[in-house]
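Look over this one:
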Amino acid sequence: MPTDNQGSSYEYKSSGTNNQGNHYCSRDYGSGASNPNSYHYSNTNGSYYYSNPNGSTYYNNGQGGSKYTPPSSGNSGKK
């Protein structure tokens, strides 16, 4: 079973490229994760989004702007 850069094990659910050239990847981290069905996508315009297994999310617009939402909070901060 592969591990991510945090050392967490996961199984691939699906990945691919849509008809607009945008890439996506979905992973299953199991029932112990806050967000077991994590995914990320990256777009042809340079933007990307991560929905992480700990419940956090991260968006980068590809132009220097980004937004991180921590795992246990509805508050988001501009980075």
Observations:
- Residues 74-79 have pLDDT under 50 and may be disordered.
- The beta strands are 11-17, 23-28, 37-42, 48-51, 57-60, 66-69, 77-78.
- Residues 42 and 48 are 4 Å apart (CA to CA).
- Residues 11-72 form one domain.
